[in-house]
Amino acid sequence: MTERPDRTPLPRPFLDRPVLDVAPDLLGRVLVRRTAEGPIVLRITEVEAYAGELDPGSHAFRGRTPRNEVMFGPPGHAYVYFTYGMWHCLNVVCGPEGRASGVLLRAGEIIEGQELARKRRLSARYDKELAKGPARLATALAVDRALNGTDLCQDDTAPLSLYTGTAPPPDLVRSGPRTGVGGDGAHHPWRFWVDGDPTVSPYRPHAPRKRST
Question: Long-range contacts of range 152-158, CB-CB < 8 Å, 24 or more positions apart?
Fold first, then answer.
């Protein structure tokens, strides 16, 4: 990025819309993670939409649970989950309160605080790989379950905040199937990314797990 993105806070009404409207509109927005060591700033380049109880791919498909409770709350909060016993993933809750939906942040460009992200992503060979994938993104930003429920529309003292950033030109926004989603939700074109951006993660279709015998 050659120009400093807009640091106007992203207003809550922006996120209080249908998830399929919000998801592509999050591309180019800026997420700031404030840590004790200093801030890390991410430009969002890839996302996936999850439509709650209407979506077989969503954690909320079977209703409200202690794990997904935040998804049913007001828009503009972080939904952080732990997966495969190893990784965290970060989502932005959107839509009206009581109707679960969220946008998974799949990838982004670290535009400030690269040295802090590198300490957490020692396996990354290049800076473009620091947040290339949802687990890598959360690791680079030091995001874990302690941040679940964080209000992303707060002031500049919050541990996580969303800002307006700079949206990409519409002709650079692409869509396709979500990564790793199987079943009835496999073919929904609800993954959105900035075409040609080197930080976007590779697409992988769902691969059913083989049961051990």
Answer: 152/10, 152/31, 152/76, 152/77, 152/78, 152/92, 153/9, 153/10, 153/11, 153/12, 153/15, 153/76, 155/9, 157/34, 158/34
